[in-house]
Design a protein that fits this description.
With about 260 residues, the chain is mainly alpha-helical. The protein is built from 14 helices and two strands; from the N terminus they run H-H-H-H-H-H-H-E-E-H-H-H-H-H-H-H. Helix content is about 65%, strand content about 0%. The chain has a two-stranded antiparallel ribbon. It starts with a helix and ends with a helix.
Length: about 260
Amino acid sequence: MSAGDQLWLPGHRCAALTAPVVDRVHRAAMAAADTAGAELRQRYGGPAAVGYLVDLRTRLAAPAGLVGAAGFAAVTRYQDPASCQRVLDKQVAYGMLVRHPDGALRATERGGAFLTDLYALHATVTGQIWGAEHAARLARLVELTGRLLAAALAGSDTVGQDTDGLAAGGQDAFRAVAPPYEPEGTPAGVLLLNRLTVLRYHRADAHAAAWTAAGHTARSIVDLPPGPARLAIEQETDRRAAGPYQSLEPEQRLTLLADLAALPG
C-alpha cells in the first residue's frame, strides 16, 4: 500500500468514522430484537433470567463456550461488580448459566436452548429491517467485517505491543466474545449483527486502555466532560483501535463506511 493510499483514509481515521455508524446500526438492530423478543424472554423466565446470555451470546452459544471472569469483568467494566454478581446469581438460579469456581461462565442446556431461539429471532428481525433490497450490501459487509475480525484476532495475540495502532494494554472484553459463534447456515444479517457486537468490544478495550493510560477509572471517565482531555482520550482510542482497519485497502474502508451508513436503523 502506498503512502498516498495511507493518507487517503488512514486506519485511525477509519476507526473514528466507523465507530458511530457501527453504534447506530447495532443499537437499532438490538432494539428491534428486544421489542420482538418479549415473548421469548418470558418463556425462559423473563429479563432477569436471560440478560447476560444476550450480552455474551457470541461465545456462550458455541458448544462448550466459556466466558472467563476477567472477560466478564471487562464486558461489564462500567457497572457495579457486586450488582453484576447478584444478577448472575439470579441467572444461575434460573438454570440458565453455570458459574465455575474460577468465575468462568457457560450456558446450561436450557441456556443453550434460549440462545438457539435467540439466534433464530435475530435472523427474523435482521431479515425484516435489512430486507432483500440490502442483500448485496449485507454480503459486502459480512466479508469486510470478517476481515476486520480476523485482523483483530491476530492482533489480540500481540497484546502489549504498541505498533501499527494495535490496541495495546489488554483486550479482555474482545477476547471474551470473539470469535463469534457462526454455525453453518447462519444468515447474513445475524453474521453482521454479531460481528458488529464483537467489533464494538474491540473498540471498548481500546477506549479502556486509552483512559487508563490517562489516569482515569471506569467511573471517572464516565464523568469526564467534553473538552481537551476527553478529545485526547478519544484520539488515543482511535489510534489503539486502528489495527484491524489497516488490514483493509482504502477503497474497502470507504465501502465499509458507505454500506453501514446506508443500512436503515
